[in-house]
């Protein structure tokens, strides 16, 4: 492709609203343009990178036994109402009505749609297992789109769904998908981890997120410093063996703590360690109040609360709800003399406390010398807190450390969550009807492009991996008024295109400094400069990743490029 004939609108300045490297560079290098908040156009270079990632995804999905299809983005509300998600999915679901006042949603995901399709077509266990996938735009009304392609309202996604007659078959498909995803992200050159994760609004159990390590990641990964264990922070189990603390034997005493709202303030005011306090938080769990207790230096993990309570919706009580149920504002909540209508559960660490300081359910007041079972009771103990750095790794090897990550893929074992709700059944070998068992597997294709850009750049611009770059080679004619340079550039363009290289020829009448700056910004693997020595049949070859340069005779160029690309493929 000749650069004068395509659309690559580069920018010298960093756009004011671009906060992260990938967003800045994809805009500056002319890969994308923002149409409105969270919605982007992919310009020719950006589309080519998307196609490279899509090709890798298709190859690995096909190798794992998937078959590609395409479903509508516009989905009727009735399907979501069957699954129960029309009411529970939340404001991120883009809803609309047609001229006949029928309700629809723009597809945020396709579990309902694909379940309805397969239940109508497959009736026997003999037709299973089956894995179908699509690559399609998805829509979510993000409250705060940010970081360019990393959190948008329209994005390109690969979503796959598998259907099975038994759990063993699902387990086998799940393992194939984990392997396929690992291959995909490895082929994209990414530094990533497969981590244990929560299923969120999708539903189901047993799932992994694929996280690209990055300081700008919105998710925290808890990983072992001595093994392969990794989990999303919200899912990392706590396996600390606590020591039992002794109680002083003193009676519970009421203490005035004016204007002391936080655990840190109360502990400092009473001159006690935060580990001797209990933090009490009121949650509304499936519309019922639940008081959750953790040690004062720990934080409640609402995902663990949701899983322990086997709940659909868990939300922190509002100030108004807190006053309604406990008669006090946040800051003085405690477990003593809690109304019977409120269930009290606690993290395992609370069981081992001795003298406890906690809220008294009276404004500006706390209790000290509180004792578990004597002064308050707990219905259930479980792991309800976030893991912290230094905790033992749940697999027994090493200790937990934290890293930031960008989620680019997610695999789920859905089980029968959707098939039961939507009556998607098959006849088993005995002729009995039973719900299909399902799996769900998603990759953010456009997000993966941003993650690659986030990991592969330097001070001058993007540095694309060879198999992801929109073009392999960038030929630059230094002076378009020099007939020899123009002729040699055209000859090399044709020669290298015939050799099956994807070539971008900068034939613009720009200053050479502009051409070089644009070339570095775009970040193609190899640049070939046709300059003053063109008359001697010599060109300069530069490797973008390493900065190495070589003067090469035209006749030796193809051999040299073979060596360079062999070297780059092994990096």
UniProtKB/TrEMBL annotation:
User: Is Cell division given among the entry's keywords?
Assistant: no
Q: Which GO terms describe its molecular function?
A: aminoacyl-tRNA deacylase activity; ATP binding; catalytic activity, acting on a protein; proline-tRNA ligase activity; transferase activity
Which keywords are on file for this protein?
Aminoacyl-tRNA synthetase, ATP-binding, Cytoplasm, Ligase, Nucleotide-binding, Protein biosynthesis
Keyword Aminoacyl-tRNA synthetase in the entry? The reply is yes
- Location relative to the cell: Cytoplasm
State the EC number(s).
6.1.1.15
Primary localisation category: cytoplasm
List residues of the Aminoacyl-transfer RNA synthetases class-II family profile domain. 38-465
Which GO terms are recorded in the biological process aspect for this UniProt protein? prolyl-tRNA aminoacylation
Q: Which InterPro entries match?
A: aa-tRNA-synt_IIb, aa-tRNA-synth_II, aa-tRNA-synth_II/BPL/LPL, Anticodon-bd, Anticodon-bd_dom_sf, Pro-tRNA-ligase_IIa, Pro-tRNA-synth_IIa_bac-type, Pro-tRNA-Synthase_IIa_type1
Q: Give the similarity note.
A: Belongs to the class-II aminoacyl-tRNA synthetase family. ProS type 1 subfamily.
Q: How does it assemble?
A: Homodimer.
Summarize the protein's role.
Catalyzes the attachment of proline to tRNA(Pro) in a two-step reaction: proline is first activated by ATP to form Pro-AMP and then transferred to the acceptor end of tRNA(Pro). As ProRS can inadvertently accommodate and process non-cognate amino acids such as alanine and cysteine, to avoid such errors it has two additional distinct editing activities against alanine. One activity is designated as 'pretransfer' editing and involves the tRNA(Pro)-independent hydrolysis of activated Ala-AMP.
The Swiss-Prot or TrEMBL note on domains reads: Consists of three domains: the N-terminal catalytic domain, the editing domain and the C-terminal anticodon-binding domain.
Name recorded for this polypeptide = Proline--tRNA ligase
Q: What is the lineage of its organism?
A: Bacteria, Bacillati, Bacillota, Bacilli, Bacillales
